[in-house]
Task: structure prediction
Amino acid sequence: MAPITHFGEYSLSTIILFLVGSTYILYTLIQRIVLYHQRSQVIRQNGCKPYAKYPHKEPFLGLDLFFLNIGYSRARKFLDHSLKRYQAHGNTFATNFFGDNNIHTIEPENIKTVLSVRFKDFEFSPRRVSALGPIFGKGIFTTDGKEWEHSRTMLRPNFTRSQVADLDVFESHIKKMIKRIPTNGETVDLSVLFFMLTIDSGRKSNEVLIFVAATEFLFGQSTDVLDDGTANSMGERFSDAFTYATEQAGKEGRLGRLAVLFPNKKYREDVKYIHNYVRVFVDKALALRKDGSLDSSEKEERYTFLAELAKNGHGAKTIQDELLNILLAGRDTTASLLTILWWILARRKDVFEKLREEVMQLGSERPTFEKIKDMKYLRYCMNEIVLTQPALRLYPIVPANGRQAARDTVLPVGGGPDGKSPIFVKKGDMVIYSSWALHRRKDFYGEDADEFRPERWEKLRVSWEYIPFNGGPRICIGQQFALTGEIPSFSFLPSSS
Result:
């Protein structure tokens, strides 16, 4: 008997496809019903209430806000308008970014929950990884979970007190920078010199060096962009390529899915140059490991990051990625902070004189880590800069950070009419927190929160209201080095400056 392949007007294959399709639809429907009830239970158990939502004019993809932000960025008004958005819609509200739900918050308890209390409930967004990955590979700023733990373990030894207390790494480069400042009263763009400084600073160590804030410390050879007429052309090319590539990565991060519509040949070429430049020094370190030079020099020289990674058997790609990750963290942030502080000092003679008086108490002594720690007014100025300016932000035009929910979770505040009830965060939601807006909350910093007043730190006591270095397990491991590294730019100034 021939097999039955038709049932009335329908073939067997059609019926099978119908059954499979129906089963899939039913399974998906059941899954969603179960998920809905599970989420409803979590919402009830935690007392979660709805949070405010931005009133989009185009609610499907949120294109109205996207183009509005582009306009504000081009006009250099993005920061002011992001602050006004919080003032208009509350300390916690949501926006639509190409169909994704972005929860914006400047509530300290929410930030603490994301970065610490429920640390494992959040991860980096694919948007961040795709933007930074082509340049920086898999390093401490592009990975989560076990990979991140491994990276942090590798880097931590370089940020011990004995490492950050060494100010000699800055002195020669700061002196070079000072020589380039006109003494005839001519106007000078200090930001250019500060960016040169932070890509030059460092210290030699038997041909192979470590990096914390600059190329000499990292590669064993400064780019020498502060030297008149003696600049290393390859170093200058690296500096320019790094600057352009990181700026482009920031743009791609802001564009999200639209980044694929704007291919950039120069960006690809610069990334290739960056990798080739760094690999030369990595290969040198690995060669020294092979012939035993790293071990023989260990007794004579201080701990070096690059040499230690090579000595511990890490591969060339791993070492390259981590070096570039640290360069990412240390260059633009330091230069930005110094630029903004000196911009303010040029306009606030009272602060400048008070700060200079404290620095001059050193007399002819060389500044030490211990003496610097005792310079309270200098520390207040640093704190105030971090408070009032986006100096420690990777991309100043977007002075915010964020994490994506790796699973359904809850934030403690932001819901209900008064914004004090918990809110439910779905898996895949982005939680974005703005230190720019947080540090301007007048209920924390007073009615003069927008003003530069270092004296506020004499009595001010803050916790998660102040997050210049983030917090929790991913708190910046180089924060002490960052602040210590900026101080010599004042301490080495001659008394006649």
About this structure: The domain at 125-347 is CATH 1.10.630.10 (Cytochrome p450). The two ends are 106 Å apart (CA to CA). The longest strand covers residues 409-415. The chain has three domains: 46-123+400-433, 125-347, 348-392+452-492.
